[in-house]
Design goal:
Blueprint lengths: L3 H15 L2 E2 L2 E4 L13 E8 L2 E6 L3 E6 L5 E5 L13 E6 L4 E5 L3 E6 L4 H4 L13 H8 L7 H6 L9 H10 L15 H16 L36 E5 L4 E5 L10
Antiparallel strand pairs: 1-3, 2-7, 3-4, 4-5, 5-9, 6-8, 7-8, 10-11
Helix pairs in contact: 3-6
C-alpha cells in the first residue's frame, strides 16, 4: 500500500534512473494525454510531495501522478522483462537510452505546467519527508478540529502529508488509543508525540519497501503491531487484534481492544 515512505523511495529511484537524460520514448495511455509526446525533452527531476509524484520535464512541464491504492512505477533496463503487471494495466512509459520507467494502474495521471503544481499539491499540509518539514504546524493542523476522530485527522493530507492507512493504525496503537477517539480527548503532549513518531517511522522506512513500525526487533515475522494482524495476539497484552472495514476495503482499521482506550467503531 503506497504511503509517504513508498512514494519517497519511488521518486528517488525514478530520479536516479531518469533525471538529466533525454527522453527517447513517451507513451501516456490515458485518453486526454494520448497525443502528448515528450520525446526529445530532458527529464529534469522527480520530486515526491506527500503521496504525489511530480516528474518535471524540460519546457516547463510536470507529469503528475498519484498511486492511490494499487498504482506503481517500475524501472527497467533494456535487458529486463517488464514484470509490474499485464500490458493493459500500463498507463505511462518514459524511456531513455539506459532505463524505462513504466507506470502501472495509475489512477491519477496529468500533464500540467510546472508553474501550476500548487493547484495539485498546494493544499497539502507539512510533508513528513519533505525538506521543509514543520512539526509544530503539523500539530496545529492535526488539533484544529477537536471533535474529529484521530484516524480521520491522521489520514487528512491537509494536516500532514504522507500518512496512509497502515501508519494510521500503527500510530493509534503506539499512542494506546483507538482511531475513533476525538483528537481533543488526547492527553496533553500526545499530539506532539504522535507527530514526532510519524516523522521518525517514515524516515526509518523511506529507503525500503518492507515497511516496519517495530524498529527495536529484527524478527522478520514482527514488522507491524496491528495492521493486517486480524485475530492474532497483540504483542503487548495478548488480546486478539480486531478489524473494522470503513469505506469498503480501502479503509481498514486494526486495533487492540486490550491496549487501546477510547470509543470503538
Amino acid at each position: 500500500m503506497p504511503e509517504g515512505d513508498t512514494i519517497w523511495l519511488t521518486a528517488h529511484r525514478l530520479h536516479a534512473a531518469l533525471a538529466g537524460r533525454l527522453l527517447t520514448r513517451s507513451d501516456l495511455r490515458v485518453p486526454r494525454l494520448a497525443t502528448a509526446d515528450l520525446t526529445g525533452r530532458t527529464l529534469l527531476d522527480v520530486t515526491p510531495r506527500g503521496k504525489h509524484l511530480l516528474t518535471r520535464i524540460e519546457g516547463g512541464l510536470t507529469l503528475h501522478s498519484h498511486l492511490q491504492m494499487d498504482g506503481a512505477w517500475r524501472v527497467f533496463t533494456p535487458d529486463q522483462r517488464w514484470n509490474g503487471g499485464p500490458g493493459h494495466q500500463i498507463r505511462a512509459i518514459l524511456g531513455t537510452a539506459t532505463h524505462t520507467a513504466v507506470g502501472y494502474r495509475l489512477p491519477v495521471l496529468d500533464l500540467i505546467r510546472t508553474s501550476d503544481e500548487p493547484n495539485v499539491v498546494g493544499h497539502l499540509g507539512p510533508d513528513l519527508l519533505g525538506p521543509d518539514w514543520d512539526a509544530e504546524e503539523a500539530v496545529r493542523r492535526l488539533c484544529a478540529d477537536p471533535a474529529r476522530p484521530l484516524g480521520e485527522a491522521l489520514l487528512d493530507q491537509r494536516n500532514l502529508a504522507g500518512i496512509g492507512n497502515v501508519y494510521k493504525c500503527e500510530l493509534a496503537f503506539m499512542a494506546r488509543v483507538t482511531p475513533w477517539l476525538p483528537v481533543g480527548d488526547l492527553a496533553p503532549g500526545v499530539p506532539e508525540r504522535l507527530v514526532a513518531t510519524a516523522h521518525r517511522l517514515l524516515e526509518a522506512n523511506k529507503e525500503r519497501f518492507d515497511r516496519r513500525t517495530i524498529l527495536t526487533n529484527d524478527r522478520a515475522d514482527r514488522r507491524l503491531y496491528v495492521y493486517s494482524r486480524l485475530n492474532k495476539p497483540c504483542y503487548r497484552c495478548g488480546a486478539l487484534i480486531r478489524r473494522k472495514e470503513e469505506l469498503g476495503r480501502d479503509r481498514l482499521s486494526y486495533w487492540c481492544p486490550g491496549c487501546q482506550s477510547g470509543p470503538g467503531p
